Sequence to fold (172 residues):
Amino acid sequence: MAEAKWYVVHTYSGYENKVMLDLKKTIENRGLQDQILDVSVPVQTVTEIRAGVKKQVEKKMFPGYVLINMIMNDDTWYIVRNTRGVTGFVGPGSKPVPLSEEEMDAMYNGPSEILLDYEEGDTVTIINGTWKDSQGVVRAIDLDAQTVTINIDMFGRETPVELGLTDVRSDN
Fold:
């Protein structure tokens, strides 16, 4: 018997979860659990910082794509390809290409993201600490150290101040 491999299926934008649920239902109804082993929409937890508030949200890693661990044969190809919302397998022409082990490892062991509502050059307001309610311009962002350096006007001079990412709020 052939070995199951991971394949990537392209879907209409926003239909990833619907395709996943429809495929799982079809697999159950037709008793194909031994041929189509898993269907998933990869998500990652991302830290968003908006208005100085840190929040964990889940974002789709690959919008418009669904991963399927399956044994490729004519039946499984047909079932997946003819699921509503699926536009096709990823690969040249109509030949699906499985993901390598390295690609799967990189996908699930990649770095997490921090999304900010400000960037270098933006004007921000400090919302915590000694400089609370002061405004300044973002000069540098260090995601590893989770700090932001802004220039504030102190006694007529621009002075750099280093703060935590959540200590400032975008004025945009």
Observations:
- The mean pLDDT is 87.
- The longest strand covers residues 43-50.
